[in-house]
Amino acid sequence: MSNDELYDDELDHDFDEADEVEAYCMSCREKTVMDNPTPIWTRRGAPGTRGTCSICGTTMFLMGKTPAHNRLTRPEPVQIIEPGRGGLKIPATVTYLNFGVQDGEFAEILAEDLKRIGIQTWMAEDHVRDPQWATGIHPALTECKNMVVILTPLGIKATNVQEALNFFLTTNKPVFVALLQDADVPDVLRRKPRFDFRGDDYKRQFRQLAGSLTGG
Asked: What CA–CA distance (Å, rounded) separates 164 from 78?
């Protein structure tokens, strides 16, 4: 099986139910019916649904459990922190997902899809509430292999997003851009690999991003 077929197989878990699923479309700026709704579990074990807008084709996300989740086995939440001498250790193969709080749903879905194909992620918010690291550099910033920045007009302005991004840039570690909404691309990101998740071709963009993260 080719990588493309593998990615498609991992992303295809469609609803059988006839009930319509509605979610907020960031392009239409209103609630619309979701085409091809796919029940998933996030890396933290939370239920969600991914699909496309029936009006404009933009990828949509909705957190929460639906009847379709009853056919799926809820996975154990991903634990990527391991005990180490003198503190915590994060495997060096983990990808850091950098995003603003308003883009959390997309980040959760992207993290789950990456996990399905063996790419573990560290969510930016995982250490925001951790007082142990509130005044210093979290191990995730130093130990994660690369970063995916979820780019939206509000997200890129968030202080935590900018600080994490600046750390990766100054340490010359790979940074990739997942463009989620129309936004001015900062100069520091213009030459970074960019993947356009604004439209209806989520699978293609996901395959390309995953291939870049794995060097494929």
From this structure: 22
Contact between 127 and 140 under an 8 Å Cβ cutoff? The reply is yes
CATH number at residue 52: 3.40.50.10140
Q: Determine how many CB atoms are found less than 10 A away from the CB of residue 216.
A: 9
Within 10 angstroms of residue 174's Cβ, the number of other Cβ atoms is 15
Using DSSP's 3-state secondary structure scheme, residue 131 falls into helix
Q: Which domain holds residue 127?
A: 3-214
What pLDDT, in 10s, does the model give residues 135-153? 456 777 888 889 999 999 9
Q: Which of 41, 44, 51, 108 is nearest to 71 (CA)?
A: 41
Number of domains, the chain: 1
Please tell me whether the overall predicted TM-score, pTM, comes out greater than 0.85 for this model.
no
Which 3 state secondary structure label does DSSP give 107?
helix
| d(C-alpha 193, C-alpha 177), whole Å | 6
Do the Cβ atoms of 60 and 28 come closer than 8 Å?
A: no
